[in-house]
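Morning, I've got a small favour to ask if you have a moment. I've been staring at a protein lately and its backbone has me curious. You're getting the sequence in one-letter code plus the fold written as tokens. I've dropped the whole record in just underneath, so have a look:
=====
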Amino acid sequence: MRVAPLALAAGLLFNGGDARAQSNEEAAPLEASRKLSPAPRGEAARQTPIILRAREVRARPDLDASAEGDVDFRHSGIVIDADRLSYDQAEDRAIAKGHVRISKDGAVYRGPELQLRVQRFEGFFLAPEFDFAQLGAGGRAERVDFIDASRATATNAIYTSCPRDGSGDPDWVLETKRVKLDFDANEGIAEGAVLRFLGAPIIALPTMSFPLTDARKSGWLPPSINFDSRSGLELAQPFYWNIAPNRDATLTPHLYSKRGLGLDNEVRYLEPRFNGTLELGLLPNDRVADRSRDLVNWHHEGDDGGGLRYGFDLLRVSDDGWWKDFPGATGSGTPRLLSSRAAVERSFSSGRGQGLAYLRVQDWQVLQGSDSLVTAPYQRSPQLGLRWGTPLDGGFELAVEAEFNRFTLPANDPLADPSTARFTGARWHSLGSLAWPLREPGWWFVPKLSYNLAAYRTDQVMADGRHDASRFIPTASIDAGLEYERHAEAFGHGLRQTLEPRLLYVNTPYHAQSDLPNFDAAAKDFNFNSIYAENAFSGVDRVSDAHQLSAGVTTRLVDETTGAEALRLGLVQRFLFRDQLVAAQADGTPDGPPLTQHFSDLLLLASTSLVKSWTFDSSLQYSPDISRPVRSIVGVRYSPGPFRTVNATYRYARGLSEQFELGWQWPVYTRPASATGGCGGSWYTVGRVNYSLRDSRATDAIFGAEYDAGCWIGRVVAERLSTGRNEATTRLQIQLELVGLSRIGANPLKVLKDNIPGYRLLRDDRRTTNANDE
């Protein structure tokens, strides 16, 4: 066995022995750090000298050494402090006694006696207390046996992240008869484990396996408990299966007090050329619905390495009532319209141009209800297209798109009957543009010619008795703007102020389109982006005639140091030189009455964060015809510090809706910084309320409380989701987070993050041992 040389630190006091001491003036000071970083490995570690420092040292070179008084022993990232220490170099054995402290890789052990073969890190520690800095937790044991640098066994151990200064019993503690730790395998196995919270046992297991880091590991995850008004009490016990470094699965049995047993399964895979996620949900005998119920949600995408990309999403549930009974289970932003699609596309180059060829299909599952019917978007079966763009000589840019679609309706769409006026059929269209963009610092000028060509063949007869129709609509436009900048000062900040006027002129001739099918066109929302659009409709089937000018100006204040935008003000208005004949109806659908308002509504925008801790956002649509606002949004956020945020938003649409929304995370009691002892902590309240002033009712609401005790966090969150004008589902989620161990119960964190702007996870600088909790 090769033993590292023993290097006696300069400046030590020796009493006897063969070693000679240097004078303090000649001594080089030792590094003050307790951890030699980075710690050498392998052969380099074996060659690293041992450094021994103490008030008194006796040593025989290449044989042994003993030290007393403030002993400091170091080797390859291991630091041992003690009152007394002896080291046998032949056996590579260190024996330390009296206030022994050893640190290695962020773990610290303290106790009365340590015996250790240093290079192999093999030995034992009697009655140690231990701390893991990364987790902010630790405990004590009757004995710890170090098998090697990666494995250890603790006997009669307790573990907690609560204070262990003797001021009181820890609020939570994990007690085990025996714990085996294998850091190479990332596995800990506890025998006779009992988890106690506030003195009461809440979990007891004969054997418990757990990961030692954030790396993935197979095993049971903490149980989950939920309650909602439609399914009752739900108990779930997930099992995580780490199949391979690039594949895993989570199986979660559920027990619903009202509905019965269910099983969820999630499989994830990541291969060199493809990846995906498959979710399966099964409720074989729903006692409430008196039937079997299931869910399939599969996302997959990949490529062949040569530019060909493909992917599909499959989302299906067994019945129309799924969205009410299991809100949020599909993860869809439109819970009653579930989309499935498949696509294959390939990029290509042709000369200086870049193109994309694609084949796609899409269909919808519509979840209808007895109280209301949903009209589904058209299904595309298939969608075949080609896009290509290229720069031309003289600075011109050419872009062309050609596409074929077959449009169908879901079988349960309320207007899917062939006798209705909602057409099905095929459409071929082509969109193209030729632009001459001139751009220089401080200005731009972009004249453009474009066209929209579409041909139809419908399954039903059109108003004029035909099945076939086509139309061609050209458009000419000029987009121009300026960008001015100057230095400014405000609130003690150096700022850059901009002034950005913009003009957009559009000329599109009128073409009657009301007798043609409308498969995908809808009126764009009237806002700062759409007012600068050439077409007032999205999609292909409707093109608004136009002879108009949009004019606006925006000014911004930007912090010169951080680049953050401190203030934005803007206004814009559109002027019609002639009536717009192809216009939207009041509900936003096309083919409404002509638009004769030559001066459009005025749009105003204002946002600022100049005032510390405050953020203001507002937009206003003002009608000059009635001299009143038509639509407005006003929002304010106050965030004076972490875990302190209040958001208020007012939304108004004349004749349609009026809503007020309030969201917050705020402490109601904060433990004084001078308080000591125990895990006493702080109370926080969280929530969001969306209230309809027009209907005089709360449409959606979230109320919750969080208690941060320092070593544990308790959360209770109640959520009310509207599933109809007179229906709602109420969910209650309770979670106990044991800092440094895991989270137990339901997981309301996603609900809080998604619904409360500015929400921050309490103690987000602390990490739990289970990466799968979130």
